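Training component of the fellowship. As part of building independent skills, the fellow (R.M.) carried out the full modelling exercise for a liganded target. The chosen ligand was adenosine-5'-diphosphate. The inputs are recorded below so that the supervisory panel can assess the work.
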Amino acid sequence: MRILIATCEATPLARTGGLGDVCGALPKALSALGHDVSVIMPAHRSALASGLPMQPTSCEFAVPIGNKSVRGRILETRLPGTNVPVYLVDQKDYFDRPAIYVDTDGQEYKDNCERFAFFSRATLEAVRLMELRPDVLHLNDWTTGLLAAYLKAELRGVPPYDSIATLFTIHNLAYQGTFWHWDMLLTGLDWKYFNWRQMESFGNLNLLKTGLVFADAINTVSPTYALEIQQPELGCGLQDLLSFRRDVLSGIINGVDYSEWNPATDTHLAAHYDASNVVEGKAACKAALQRELGLTVRPEVPLIGLVGRLVEQKGIDLVTAVMEHWADHVDVQWAILGTGERRYEEQLTALAERFPRQMAVRIGFSDPQAHRIEAAADMFLMPSRYEPCGLSQLYSLKYGTVPVVRATGGLVDTITDATPSTLADKTATGFCFADYTSTALAAAMERACQAFAQPQVWRQLVSTGMSQDWSWAASAKEYVATYQRTIARRREPARAL
Ligand code: ADP
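Fellow's submitted model of the complex:
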């Protein structure tokens, strides 16, 4: 099968979170299954600075954006260690910027609609001029939503586009790419599509909705989240549309790239370990991180880790409440790494300043430090309001770090709560709580601390987690089956739009 993955992020070229991890790893797994897979993404500044060799191609073009004609070209590289081609849409004005989505004040770039209309049209030009001929075009999140509309509304019946099936993956429904209605002009699509059944949502142009309406099939990144987004609470206003399309909506859990995330080979760690020497290995990593972060070096105290975007989704308000409440009377240490909303950054930093030997907070994005926290921590917190899949809890399992998670989305599908019966049958891997309150989080953490104090119980939790296989192999096979179904659907007679 020939697969083209269109994305805004792919590790190691550009990444702000899980989307980058997925689009860097899934292509490798699909290629290992024998499929012909390639990736197309914008030539962001971080991609050009990644150190990967970039070859120019002969593919140069101009596409209409509003009443302008904008030129671009395609560069080519490979995903490291593979033969998977990555095509980069090079357009300096749009993509040679310090960050991917937001300016230096954290505000979304004002021309985001224009940038991703261009990326979408450029992708279609690359398909035609480079004769890529994909059987399936795999779209990811709102930045690629217009591609589904172009293929269905403009290019139905037009070779070489007519036979291309589209699968649209929702990595996070909350980020929708909404713009004022006049941005319709930039897309070049007929105003007739600006209606509540297609591209319009609450008066705005909505590019995520556009993808969901026009793609041949949809999936999201866990079975539980696929159900949750059909309900008002987590449907972000699109629950009725998702429910209407439920016959083509599925959930496929993300995998882990164990070539990046494996404590036996991880180059960022003070010591390497696997299940056979996890106690000694983690102890060495823990002492090294305690020193690195200025925490008191104490092997016996539970070290709680958290790495992630500091945004409302991630439950940071619950974490600061427990940190504050526990500071004087519960003997634990905290190692927190993240960047995001200023209010959370400030609250966390203030706590760390008050309790420097007990709480370490690093504001920033550091992949090496993320690895070191995964290895050193005893427990890893993910008290998310919602979590489409979540990757960090899967890394934690591999690193022998016990996740404490809220029972939502992919966290439900990947972590088994420690209860008397799951401990007895050795399926427990973590601690889950349901209510979105700091009391419920604290109760789950107390259970975790009690288990930590019983070495036999803890060893069992750690070893069950470490023995699980969350690699991409199984999920990539599910993607292949979904692509096949999507291609078959595309071959059915077209319905009127
Ligand atoms: P999301 O996609 O919602 O951000 P995931 O758990 O799916 O959450 O993926 C988060 C990924 O981003 C993980 O690989 C995590 O290690 C990484 N990450 C997030 N914030 C940081 C940070 N500040 N520094 C390093 N890595 C980070």
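The panel noted the following from the submitted structure. The chain has two domains: 2-255+473-490, 278-469. The chain has a mean pLDDT of 97.
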